[in-house]
Design a protein that fits this description.
- The chain is built from eleven helices and eleven strands.
- By secondary structure, it is an alpha/beta fold.
- The protein has two domains: 226 residues, P-loop containing nucleotide triphosphate hydrolases (Rossmann fold, 3-Layer(aba) Sandwich); 46 residues, Alpha-Beta Plaits.
- α5 packs parallel to α6.
- The two termini are 24 Å apart.
- It binds iron/sulfur cluster (2 copies).
C-alpha cells in the first residue's frame, strides 16, 4: 500500500505526519514499512528518522549532444521535444540541458542519427535503515531545476510488499504530481488559516484530478478558524485527525526529534489516523472492483 503525505504549502507539518506515521507502523503494524522522502529539493525526513545511510548513487539523465557533421538542421528534434529543450536555428541546434527530461525522443526520431546522449548528473539517491524502517531519499543538486527524474528514481525503490509512506514536496506543481501518482491514498496536511485553506483547495483539485482518494489532517487545529473544517464538510473530504497546538511538539521539531520518540500519548493519534486510512483504502478498492462510483462521506470525525 502506498500512502503519500502532501500539503498545498510548506510548514504545515507534512513531514512530521509522514515520519510519525511510519514510526507508528513500524512499532504497531506487522507489515514492512518504507519511508520515501520525495521532497528532493529540501529533504528533511532524515533529520527526524536519523537513518543509517548505507548506499549512495549519483542520479543522471541522458541529454542530447548533436553531431554537427551529420545534422541537416531539419528541425524534427525540436518538434518532438515536449519540453522545449531544443531549438534548431539555421546552422545550429541549441540544447537547453536544464529543460531536458532525458526521454530520448529526439535521438530516436532524428533521421540522420545525429544525436547521441550524454549523462548529466542531477542529484543523488541515498538508502538506509532507521530501526526497521527502510529509508530512501533523493537530494537534488543545488541550482537543478528538474526534480521529476530524481523523484522517479526514488519511487523505483518502492517495495510492493511494504507499506510505503511518501513524503511529498509542498505545493501543487509537477514534482507533487510525480510524487503522489500511483498512491492508494493521499493525506493532505493543512492548518486552519486562510492560507491553509487556499492551498488545501489547490491540493484537493490535484489529487481529485489524479483520482486518488484523500483525507485531511488539520495541524495546530485549535489556533485558527473553522473554515477548513467547513470546506471539508462541504466537499465530503474526511478529516482524519486534528492535532492541537502543543508547545512540546514545537520544541521537539526544533531539535529534530520525532514525536513518537518522546511523546507516547500521540500513539493513539497515529493509530486512529492509520485505522481510518486503512478502512478508506479498503472501501475504495472494493468500490473500484465492483465498478461503482466512489463518494466519500466526509464524516470520519476528528480526534
Ligand atoms: S533531427 Fe537530427 S538532423 Fe534534424 S535538426 Fe535535429 S539533430 Fe539535426
Ligand atoms: S531527450 Fe526528450 S526532453 Fe530531452 S531534448 Fe530530447 S526530446 Fe527533449
Amino acid at each position: 500500500m502506498i500512502i503519500s503525505v502532501a500539503s498545498g504549502k510548506g510548514g504545515t507539518g507534512k513531514t512530521t505526519v509522514a515520519v510519525n506515521l511510519a514510526l507508528f507502523l513500524a512499532r504497531e503494524n506487522s507489515a514492512k514499512v518504507q519511508l520515501l522522502d520525495c521532497d528532493v529539493e529540501e529533504p528533511n525526513a532524515h533529520l527526524f528518522l536519523k537513518p543509517n545511510l548505507e548506499s549512495s548513487w549519483p542520479v543522471s539523465i541522458p541529454v542530447p549532444r548533436i553531431d554537427k557533421s551529420k545534422c541537416t538542421y531539419c528541425g524534427k528534434c525540436a518538434e518532438v521535444c515536449a519540453f522545449n529543450a531544443l531549438a534548431v536555428l539555421k546552422d545550429q541546434v541549441l540544447v537547453f540541458d536544464q529543460l531536458c527530461h532525458g526521454c530520448g525522443g529526439c535521438a530516436l526520431l532524428c533521421p540522420e542519427k545525429a544525436i547521441t546522449e550524454q549523462d548529466r548528473e542531477m542529484g543523488i539517491l541515498e538508502t538506509g535503515k532507521s530501526g526497521s524502517i527502510d529509508f530512501v531519499h533523493g537530494r537534488l543538486n543545488i541550482g537543478e531545476a528538474m526534480a521529476g527524474p530524481l523523484i522517479r528514481t526514488v519511487k523505483e525503490r518502492i517495495d510492493p510488499n511494504s507499506v510505503t509512506i511518501i513524503d511529498v514536496p509542498p505545493g501543487t506543481s509537477c514534482p507533487v504530481v510525480e510524487s503522489v501518482k500511483g498512491s492508494d491514498y493521499t493525506l493532505l496536511v493543512t492548518e486552519p488559516t486562510p492560507f491553509g485553506l487556499n492551498d488545501l483547495e489547490l491540493a484537493v483539485g490535484l489529487v481529485r484530478a489524479l483520482e486518488i482518494p484523500t483525507g485531511v489532517v488539520i495541524n495546530r487545529a485549535d489556533l485558527g478558524d473553522l473554515k477548513v473544517k467547513e470546506y471539508c464538510e462541504k466537499e465530503a473530504i474526511p478529516v482524519l485527525s486534528e492535532i492541537p497546538y502543543d508547545p512540546n511538539l514545537a520544541r521537539l521539531y526544533s531539535r529534530g526529534v520525532a514525536i513518537l520518540h518522546r511523546e507516547e500519548k500521540y500513539l493513539r493519534v497515529f493509530a486512529r489516523m492509520w485505522s481510518l486510512i486503512e478502512s478508506r483504502v479498503e472501501v475504495e478498492s472494493q468500490t473500484k472492483s465492483s465498478g461503482a462510483i466512489v463518494s466519500g462521506n466526509g464524516h470520519e470525525n476528528a480526534l
